[in-house]
Amino acid sequence: MKVVLAEKPSVARDIAAYLGADKKRDGWLEGNGYQVTWAYGHLVTLKTPDQYDASYKSWSVEVLPIIPEQFELTLVKEQHARRQFPIVKRLFLGATELICATDAGREGELIFRYILECTGCRCRKISRLWLQSLTPQAIRAAFDNLRPASHYDSLFQAARCRSEADWIVGINATRNYTARFRDSGVLWSVGRVQTPVLAMIVDRDDEIRTFKPTPFWELITRYRGVNFRCQLERCTTESAAQALLQRILGEPLAITGVEQRPLIEKPPYLYDLTGLQRDMNRRYGLSAADTLSAAQSLYEKKAITYPRTDSAFLSSDMREKVPGILRELQASRPEDIARLDLTALPFTGRIINDSKITDHHAIIPTGKSITCSGMEGKVYEALVTRLIAAFYPPCRKQQTTVNAISNEIPFRARGVRVVDPGWTILYPAPAKKRQREGDEEESDTQELPAFSRGESGPHEPTVRQGETQPPHAFTENSLLALMETAGRLVDDDQLKEALKEKGIGTPATRAAIIETLLTRGYIDRQGKAMRATDLGRYLIAIVQDAALKSPELTGEWESRLNQIQQKHLASERFMADIVEYARELIRGSSETPAVTDSLGRCPRCGKDVIKGRTGYGCSGWRDGCGFVVWPTYEGMALSDLQLRTLLQQHVLREPVRLPSGDDVLLYMARHGCIVHVPLPARNNARRGKGGRKASASKDVKSAGKAGRRTSGKTTAPAGESLGACPLCGKEVIDQKKSYSCSGWREGCGFTIWKSIAGKKIAASTARSLLTKGITSELKGFKSRQGQPFSARLHVVDGKVEMRFPDRQEPKS
């Protein structure tokens, strides 16, 4: 009897229908000489440490690192999996031939091999079914091309190394930091992949927090309805900009040159999974996990090809199949496909490239007629449109650059005209986006009339004020992009392809990594933005090992796993390096750096911190660094040792108790503000009653919930620091309704309200007010009668007042 193992029941049913195995049994389908059964994903997994040795039940640093001499397997805990495994085992032991039909990739191979090992089956003939989609034609083609399982031994070796490496690093790092910080009562989950991703989010949040916007003034002018921008460097003072303006007032603007050059935008690549997830997040705000779920559902409905792919290309054998797929799709997209010559499709190297395919080709529709809506509808429509667009002509544009001069001050205007929209006709810009582009004062998309070199005439120069902007918070789109390229910001498509081998995780696991961080309370979603919680920031603060937080190092490991799969690296070499890294990780953590006599380095500029009369401050205060830390926090006095520890090691190992009675964890964020993380409520209750401290092992199950409870609920000092208070010098922080002095408990009442006279005051405006004492002219205030007016905010004797321009006075 030939036994076929699929990864899921739905896939097993499709394979059984093709084979004619139509007799339903308890846990399998049978007929025509075949028995088709299934797993539920993983039926078996690696044993936990205490399953090797009962002494490991107690989490202790002394027994680390835990390195099994030989990894062993055990059944997963889920009941449906435990019921299914005996059925699979019985069928395997009675088989004359085994056919592996799990998902065709690294993880699918691991699932089958682990199950095979646990059953003890010694079947001599084992074959591999490699499915690209679940249509009858694809299943037939796969059975016609069955290969011996030994052909995929290197794929299994890479999968096994990934599994065991994650076990070694994850188990040892998690136990190490949880045991060393056991007083927190929180399980600190650390992983080879998730921790570098969390570190990237924390770093980006800190960049945003520490960013100081720099005001600038630039000279622009309008000539013949076109905006020209001054080509000199932006002015850092308004007076310098006004001086330039005075030089050209009344002077004509002369055109010195007109340049035109063609621009060609080639059609986009086909989708791999990461590209699809990024596009769905950018366009519709779908999470990576939701996009993968929708794509997997479409795959099981035979509407698209295998979705968990890292390739954006098709193999040569698809050249003959694609025209037929487009013909079947023509009923739903008649006008778009009618523009293509299906008898002579322009297959280019951007579409067909065998060298860029490892396990699976790009995700494309199969041509099956399907009606879907919601997330599935959006994903399916995107895949259909991308396949059609790949064969459309490039978008051709004409870029015009006009150079001009007025009294020796150079100006430039640019405009782009679409000559042939090509593939972009399939992606019309939303009306809102077009409106935004039209509203811009100076845009590359502006329409330009015909200019002649040497012409001149009157123009309308003005000075425009602006300020530099902080980097954007991560969205799942931008986070997936960095995970794909090992933490490097890359825009070029070809360079992205080259860096894919060194990405963090795989296309199939990146969504799960993000969801894991969300579930454990280390990050949360704020609209589309992904922001680190205080729990996540504290975890990154206590992880002192730089390599464990390095996306590039993790990317190198993924690259080495790919080398194992391609038989270019021995798995034993890789695992030996992982074991040595785990040992070094534990050794490095045991050597806790001593707190020295030095006060530490400024977390903002890196200069020495010095002690003043009332607190600690940066020695670079004369150069504009406003970092200062006070010896009290939330009404609690901090000792010199605690302050030195925070400045040098950025984290206190043991919890402290606030005057409110709450036990909290203290750390110093990279932007220089002391932050606290509330401990789990259950742990606080135990401490309040004098009970013993909760052990790490007993808090394993509650750690995720504790993280979710504490995330995003830090008290005022956890807010963003905007600058020094003009009354007492302490930090002004971002509160719910105001920007207020953190020294309010000591009696300082300085406040900048977030809404003044009907106008919302942005954090950047408050920061500018604290830095300079006065803002630029602000529009949008409203009098009591509802009439709009403009004003500047300035600080007078510790109070925020308005200063009105000469030309305007509010009526009330």
Instruction: Decide which structural class fits the backbone.
Output: alpha+beta
Number of strands: 36
- Helical content band: 25-40%
Please tally the helical runs, counting DSSP H or I stretches of 4 or more residues: 24
Radius of gyration: 32 Å
N-to-C span: 92 Å
What does the largest sheet look like? 7 strands, mixed
- Going across the biggest sheet, name each strand in turn: 2-3-4-1-7-8-9
Low-confidence stretches: 434-442, 684-718, 807-812
Shape descriptor reads: flat
Strand content: 15-25%
Averaged pLDDT, please?
A: 85
If you had to describe this structure to a student in words, what would you say it looks like?
- It contains 24 helices and 36 strands.
- It has 812 residues and is α+β, with helices and mostly antiparallel strands.
- A hairpin with a 2-residue loop joins β32 and β33.
- The protein is flat and about 90 Å long.
- The protein starts with a strand and ends in a 9-residue tail after the last strand.
- The C terminus is likely disordered.
Compose a concise summary of this entry.
This protein is 35% helix and 20% strand.
What's the SSE blueprint?
Elements: E1 2-6, H1 9-19, E2 23-24, E3 28-31, E4 34-38, E5 44-46, H2 49-52, E6 73-75, H3 79-93, E7 97-101, H4 106-119, E8 126-128, H5 136-144, E9 147-148, H6 153-180, H7 194-210, E10 215-223, E11 226-230, H8 238-248, E12 253-265, H9 273-284, H10 288-300, H11 322-329, H12 334-338, H13 374-389, E13 395-406, E14 409-420, H14 431-439, E15 456-457, E16 460-467, E17 474-475, H15 476-484, H16 493-499, H17 507-519, E18 523-526, E19 529-532, H18 534-542, H19 551-565, H20 571-590, E20 609-611, E21 616-618, E22 628-629, E23 632-633, E24 636-637, H21 640-649, E25 656-657, E26 663-668, E27 674-678, H22 681-688, H23 703-710, E28 721-724, E29 731-734, E30 738-741, E31 751-753, E32 755-756, E33 759-760, H24 763-772, E34 778-782, E35 788-796, E36 799-803
Parallel strand pairs: 1-4, 1-7, 7-8
Antiparallel strand pairs: 2-3, 3-4, 5-6, 8-9, 10-11, 10-16, 11-14, 12-13, 12-15, 13-14, 17-19, 18-19, 20-21, 21-22, 23-24, 25-26, 26-27, 28-29, 29-30, 30-31, 32-33, 34-35, 35-36
Helix pairs in contact: 3-4, 4-6, 6-19, 6-20, 9-10, 9-15, 10-13, 15-17
